[in-house]
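Hi Q.,

Before the meeting this afternoon, I wanted you to have the adenosine-5'-triphosphate prediction in hand. No need to reply - just skim if you have a minute. The sequence and ligand are here:
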Amino acid sequence: MSKTDVDIGKSPSFTVSVRDLSLSRGTALLFSGVSFSIDPGQLIWVNGGNGMGKTSLLRLLAGFSRADSGIIDWSKDGRSVAAKDLVGFQGHHDAFKSALTAHESLVFWADLMDVPDDTDSVLKAVGLAMRADVRTGALSAGQKRRLALARLMLSKKPLWVMDEPTAAMDTKGVALIHSLVEGHIRSGGSAIIASHNPAQNMSAHTRRLTLNTLDDAPAGAPA
Ligand SMILES: Nc1ncnc2c1ncn2[C@@H]1O[C@H](COP(=O)(O)OP(=O)(O)OP(=O)(O)O)[C@@H](O)[C@H]1O
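Predicted structure with the ligand bound:
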């Protein structure tokens, strides 16, 4: 493990299996026939145009909503577990209270997630050590994204589900995300990333899932 790798504890053996998932919104079929599985050390890159259902799929994977049909099985050490036991989610909304400082926000989340308070080290890892005492309401958009990344590291969850993590990030921020995800995967984690950008080879086991159905043919499994 290198200095920036995330310690996710004793390498858990986990798999998330998705079988024949379909989801509609209103009268529109977003996707159907989506099947894949992800194991430690793997990365799945979810592509698709605006409104194709990337966020909706990620929310299913995080256990926040239910599919119309199909199965998602989250398993750890051979036993089915709840999504929250495996998945750390980084979405579009940061969910930080604007009156709390960056440091206070992470202390709050560490307590809520019942994980060790490694606040200082994760703030440093995302380049926010010097902004630790700034209210989150006064952070820039990119700094808020970095803080959300720090919370994801803090969560110690083995599967990172990330929705457009590079949005609002500068070039250094994009490189930082790539290296943190690489480190996470190297230390036995995995990641599912939705992005408009082409897939990045952050893992030797990178696959791509393209959502392009919207009311027509089923989306295929990742190549
Ligand atoms: N709760 C909801 N109620 C009704 N429609 C919804 C709901 N959530 C999503 N949708 C619709 O489902 C479609 C897919 O939305 P989603 O956010 O998953 O797309 P996306 O691929 O992430 O898009 P983008 O690239 O623009 O972020 C959109 O047409 C959206 O309006």
